[in-house]
């Protein structure tokens, strides 16, 4: 579905990923290595290689199965990325690290750091991701572009799930509906399709709230009745409760955020006006089938923040039509949704 912009018409048109160096991502570690244990933590820089390929390469290098490899997050192929991997080596004997290196055409991989740790690296075990992005062939008024960037820095953007969650051409949603109708899939694919279905329902609710102008609860009348709040930097939620001056101050300081549903079994935690908006946004046949499939799969109702504010957002013009952006995002959020609020970027 088309995702509604919060800050108006595109401020620019531009190209990205003309070269992998135009899209740099660095994982920010969520912990320090223990210094001992049977898991070797590797910090790897790669170009033109996705996370799954790198994990397979590490498994072959170590002579272990791919289940012995851990990583915190998925990183794209068309980028230069730095991320951690863990490999289980019970004998604590690592092969020659230089044998991991790849330098073949457009593909590169090298180990930057290594240390021993006590456990396998789990998904989500990172503090965030630092992005440095270069937009080329920028078309648009520079004053308007920088004004939009200041708005994004001050108010944030709708915290949509990015298009990569839905597969090539959005095919994951159709596959999820087929799975819910009885088609058998592998365990890994099942998890991917459940995530796509849940993400699509969340995006529907968020898009409806963006269209209504209340996605960040900053409208003229304040927050809606029945809002559920999430603490910044955590998954902890509270409410609904009457909106008051204290909540308004915390909202303005980005200490708390309004939330939307990650669908599953059980009733919506929201109430009153917010619950009515959420139910209305999901009142169609496809949403009903996705929701029923998620409930049948055993997922429980959860919440996700509706807004996302890039940390340390900065920018500079490398040339008249080349714009460099830098910012940090928390885990589970998407640089592409930040770019979408800036303009049309292909």
Summarize, please:
The chain has 346 residues and is an alpha+beta fold. 29% of the residues lie in helices and 29% in strands.
Can you walk through the features of this model?
Helix 4 packs across helix 7. Helix content is 29%, strand content 29%. Strand 15 and strand 16 form a beta hairpin. It folds into three domains: 67 residues, no CATH class; 94 residues, 2-Layer Sandwich (Pseudouridine synthase); 143 residues, Pseudouridine synthase (2-Layer Sandwich). The chain contains eight helices and 17 strands. It has 346 residues and is an alpha+beta fold. The strands form three sheets. Strands 1, 2, 3, 4, 5, 6, 7, 8, 15, 16 and 17 form an eleven-stranded mixed sheet that branches. Strands 11-10-12-13 form a four-stranded antiparallel sheet. Strands 9-14 form a two-stranded antiparallel ribbon. The mean pLDDT is 94.
Portion of residues within helices: 25-40%
The CATH topology label of the largest domain is: Pseudouridine synthase
CATH class of the largest domain: Alpha Beta
* CATH homologous superfamily title of the largest domain: TruD, insertion domain
Low-confidence stretches: none
């Amino acid at each position: 579905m088309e995702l509604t912009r919060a800050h108006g018409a595109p401020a620019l048109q531009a190209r990205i990923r003309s070269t992998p160096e135009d899209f740099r991502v660095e994982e920010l570690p969520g912990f320090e290595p223990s210094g001992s244990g049977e898991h070797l933590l590797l910090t790897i820089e790669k170009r033109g290689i996705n996370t799954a390929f790198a994990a397979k390469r590490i498994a072959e290098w170590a002579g272990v199965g791919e289940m012995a490899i851990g990583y915190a997050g998925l990183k794209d192929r068309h980028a230069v990325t730095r991320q951690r991997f863990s490999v289980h080596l019970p004998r604590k004997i690592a092969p020659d690290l230089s044998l991991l290196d790849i330098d073949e055409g457009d593909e590169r991989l090298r180990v930057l750091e290594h240390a021993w740790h006590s456990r396998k690296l789990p998904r989500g075990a990172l503090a965030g991701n630092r992005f440095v992005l270069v937009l080329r062939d920028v078309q648009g008024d520079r004053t308007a572009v920088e004004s939009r960037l200041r708005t994004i820095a001050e108010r944030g953007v709708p915290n949509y799930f990015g298009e990569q969650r839905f597969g090539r051409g959005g095919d994951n949603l159709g596959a999820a509906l087929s799975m819910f109708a009885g088609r058998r899939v592998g365990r890994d694919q099942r998890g991917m399709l459940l995530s796509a279905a849940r993400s699509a329902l969340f995006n529907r609710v968020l898009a409806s709230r963006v269209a209504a102008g209340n996605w960040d609860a900053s409208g003229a009348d304040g927050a809606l009745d029945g809002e559920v709040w999430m603490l910044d930097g955590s998954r902890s939620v509270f409410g609904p409760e009457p909106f008051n001056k204290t909540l308004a101050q915390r909202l303005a300081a980005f200490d708390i955020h309004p939330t939307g549903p990650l669908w599953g079994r059980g009733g919506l935690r929201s109430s009153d006006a917010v619950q009515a908006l959420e139910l209305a946004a999901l009142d169609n046949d496809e949403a009903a089938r996705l929701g029923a499939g998620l409930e049948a799969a055993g997922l429980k109702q959860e919440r996700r923040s509706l807004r996302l504010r890039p940390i340390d957002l900065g920018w500079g013009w490398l040339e008249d039509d080349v714009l460099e952006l830098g910012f940090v995002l928390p885990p589970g959020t998407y640089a592409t949704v930040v770019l979408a609020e800036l303009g049309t970027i292909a």
